[in-house]
Design a protein that fits this description.
The structure holds two protein chains of two kinds.
Chain A: E1 4-13, E2 16-26, E3 31-35, H1 42-49, E4 57-62, E5 65-66, H2 72-82, E6 83-86, H3 98-109, H4 114-123, H5 139-151, E7 157-161, H6 169-184, E8 188-192, H7 196-201, E9 204-209, E10 212-218
Chain B: H1 2-12, H2 14-49, E1 56-60, H3 61-70, E2 82-83, E3 99-112, E4 117-123, E5 127-130, E6 136-139, H4 141-144, E7 149-153, E8 166-170, H5 171-177, E9 184-189, E10 193-203, E11 212-215, H6 216-223, E12 228-229, E13 231-236, H7 243-250, H8 257-264, H9 269-279, E14 283-287, H10 289-331, H11 333-341, H12 346-384, H13 394-419, H14 422-426
Helix pairs in contact in B: 1-12, 2-10, 2-12, 2-13, 7-9, 10-13, 12-13
Classes of the chains: A alpha/beta, B alpha+beta.
Chain lengths: 232, 429
């Protein structure tokens, strides 16, 4: 049984089909990239997979359970227990330190544990910056705090929306390297990106166009390491 | 973590929180001032209304019947009297706290040395009573008829040892008989005689100016009327009459049980009269209607004004809180969206925001309470020339008002928070 399966999922806004009968399967431990041009439905798909939004029709099976018809409260529980979210704009709480931002996810999940939160920051190489506020961290460091926050509750899926969209090349490499390590540890990763270099690192890439799956590629030379292309 | 988030949110938004606290402080200070004045205004207005004199007159039943039939002007020609030893019972009725002053009258016919007939009226001047309730009351004409102008001398002091040989003489009589303060007048009654030293000459502007006023026991001794009283004048704080009070005034027996309870437990002048009749044997207590009505109406209108100002100040505070909290939630919409995205339920976030605002409300409420106490004193001194006494009841009432107003002010912000969708704020849609 797949960890995640979308069956004929559509999201319709008036006359606009943001997603149009999409079928996708994601296996446990898989690293999947979702690509596509602007307006192709990438973020809509991320919202639906991340239990942030409801599909207009279709089934979304997470661990064999259809979450498409769940209530808002049940979807909150699913986000809390099964999904780790990483955003392009980081979305850290400005008045909390790095470690407190990680503990925030623990607080809404179970019980805040500062030691465990510090260990999570250590995994992303930020133990030295744990007590700094977001405004005192670089973009890459903020994104690493987001990664630590996403993985603190041991989610079944880490869902990243343009995780390197606001980062320079060096920080992009650091974040992708973190994803590689998470993948090695058996974490299921779904990365929504418009960056081909980030998408190529994944095991499999799905390309969306006009709300439909346009094509799918499998990276046969999967290493999990990013290769930057230098334009002539 | 919760406390840490509250504390840090406070520090980050201290300017906004200060504004919210200030808004709440303004509302609670006005509420505190108005409620303090309102709860104390009864006593204050009572002091002011003493100038109007008594609003209830108690006479023996027979005298009352004769008055109704022949309109003899309250003169006791029936030989019926009230009992002096029952006077203290007036302060034991259900509405005892509303009885603010009263005094008995007993008149003895007497003659002066030159043979002129004169009425000598015994009454209280500043009679001190220790009540069964543990309270003390100083009652008498000195306070009840404060409009009497003392033209010479002073009021009789009942606490003085020689008070039973002192007299106050009406201005008309003093002029007619050439009586001055310090003179001794010899009066002879039907059952006794007395040499009375004139302590004061007063001008009441009425028929009292032809009378001599003495202490109750002096008048009783002159007329051989020991333990007897002609009438009692009572000043009571009353509620304006309504249909129920008018119906009850005609016949309390016509009321249903629930109507009777309502009437009996409301300070209508008729229910106070009824309760006085219950404790004074064979008496009829009737309202001096005009005075009773105007007293009740002034008190009711003043209290209504205070309540209106309190309500308006609270509405103003609620609107201010509403704007500020809504602005705060809008400003924090990304933070709230993020909390929802990482698994926070609406109730957790609502609890967080409400705790922040309620903590601010406590600070604002306490500051406003103390400021309000100051405002109340300003009102007390500028309107009533005396301090407003602080009633403990004001504290819980203001606390409840602040809590309700703060919660009402938060409703639009909470609704916005509940309807906020993480996807709209986290992805900019």
């Amino acid at each position: 049984m797949s960890l995640l399966e979308l069956k004929n999922v559509s999201k319709i806004y008036g006359s606009l089909h943001a997603l149009d009968h999409v079928n996708i399967k994601v296996e446990k431990g898989e690293w999947l990239a979702i690509m596509g041009p602007s307006g192709s439905g990438k973020s809509t798909m991320m919202n639906i997979i991340g239990a942030l939004d409801k599909a207009t029709e279709g089934e979304i099976l997470l661990d064999g359970v259809d979450i498409a018809k769940k209530s808002a409260s049940a979807l909150t529980d699913i986000r809390r227990d099964k999904i780790g979210l990483i955003f392009q704009q980081f979305h850290l709480v400005s008045y909390l330190t790095a470690v407190e931002n990680v503990m925030l996810a623990q607080y809404y999940h179970s019980v805040p544990d500062e030691k465990e939160a510090l260990e999570a920051l250590d995994r992303v190489g930020l133990s030295e910056r744990a007590h700094h506020y977001p405004s005192q961290l670089s973009g890459g460091e903020q994104q690493r705090v987001c990664v630590a926050r996403a993985l603190i509750n041991y989610p079944e899926i880490i869902l990243a929306d343009e995780p390197t969209g606001n980062l320079d090349e060096a920080n992009e490499e650091i974040v992708v390297e973190l994803f590689r390590k998470l993948h090695e540890d058996g974490t299921t990763l779904i990365v929504v990106t418009h960056n081909p270099e980030v998408a190529e690192v994944a095991q499999r890439t799905i390309v969306l166009r006009n709300g439909k799956v346009d094509h799918e590629t499998i990276n046969e030379n999967f290493t999990g390491k990013i290769k930057h292309i230098t334009l002539q | 973590m919760f406390v840490r988030m509250i504390a840090k949110a406070f520090l980050r938004q201290w300017k906004k929180m200060l504004l919210i606290a200030f808004t709440i402080a303004l509302g609670s200070s006005l509420a505190t001032a108005m409620l303090s004045v309102m709860m104390d205004v009864g006593d204050k207005i009572n002091q002011e209304l003493k100038a109007y004199g008594a609003n209830i007159k108690v006479v023996p039943k027979d005298t009352s019947v004769l008055n109704e039939l022949y309109d003899v002007g309250g003169e006791n020609i029936t030989g019926a009297y009230l009992k002096e030893d029952e006077l203290g019972k007036i302060k034991t009725i259900f509405w005892a706290f509303n009885i603010v002053d009263y005094t008995p009258f007993i008149t003895a016919e007497a003659s002066l040395d030159n043979g002129d007939k004169v009425d000598v009226t015994g009454t209280w001047f500043n009679h001190h009573m220790d009540l069964p309730t543990g309270e003390a009351l100083d009652a008498g004409v000195a306070s009840l008829r404060s409009w009497w102008e003392i033209k010479d001398g002073d009021w009789i002091d009942e606490q003085a040892e020689d008070s039973s040989s002192l007299a106050m003489v009406g201005a008309a009589l003093a002029e007619k008989e050439k009586i001055s303060v310090g003179d001794t007048i010899h009066v002879t009654g039907s059952q006794g005689e007395n040499d009375l030293k004139v302590a004061g000459i007063f001008d009441a502007g009425g028929e009292e100016d032809d009378l001599i006023y003495v202490t109750v026991d002096t008048a009783q001794a002159l007329g051989g009327l020991d333990g007897k009283i002609d009438s009692i004048e009572v000043l009571a704080l009353t509620t304006p009459d309504n249909e129920l009070a008018e119906k009850a005034a005609k016949d309390p027996g016509s009321l249903s049980v629930s109507q009777y309870e309502t009437w009996y437990c409301t300070a209508y002048v008729s229910s106070i009269c009824y309760q006085i009749e219950e404790v004074i044997t064979d008496s009829v207590a009737s309202a001096v209607r005009q005075v009773a009505d105007s007293e009740g109406q002034i008190l009711e209108k003043t209290q209504l004004l205070m309540i209106l100002i309190t309500i308006l100040s609270m509405i103003g505070a609620a609107l201010g809180i509403c704007n500020l909290v809504t602005a705060s939630v809008m400003e924090r919409s990304q933070e709230i969206g993020l909390m929802k995205a990482i698994g926070a339920h609406n109730r957790s976030i609502t609890g967080l925001i409400l705790t922040e605002i309620m903590c601010t409300a406590v600070i604002g409420g306490v500051l406003g309470f103390f400021a309000g106490m100051g405002f109340a004193q300003i009102v007390g001194h500028s309107v009533f020339n005396s301090a407003i006494s602080m009633r403990p009841m004001v504290i819980p009432v203001v606390a409840v008002l602040v809590a309700i107003v703060t919660l009402i002010g938060c409703i639009p912000a909470i609704r916005m928070l509940l309807n906020l969708r993480p996807t709209e704020v986290l992805h900019g849609r």
